[in-house]
Amino acid sequence: MQYFVYLIVTESNSKLISYVGSTNNIKKRIGMHNLSKGAKFTRGRKWKLAYIKKYLSKSIALKEEYKLKKNIKLRKKIKLKFNNENFGSTSI
Fold first, then answer.
1. Residue 51 CB neighbour total at 10 angstroms
2. Where are the domains of the chain?
């Protein structure tokens, strides 16, 4: 079975905030976040997928999820790239 590590973003007070998670069904999981049935932090917001990577085992995916959650520089880089690709070079 394949597993995914993902980073979703939303706009809050003219600033992008992000959430990192892992799942084996990415479409269902993003849908749950947007229906306020995902993690408590994600409730009440509309999320967009900014990053996804596929892994062949759950244990590797969970390790990589943990690394991405702790790597603030990489998260900022992903958010900046997402911002530039989706909103042009202007900041939100």
1. 19
2. 3-87
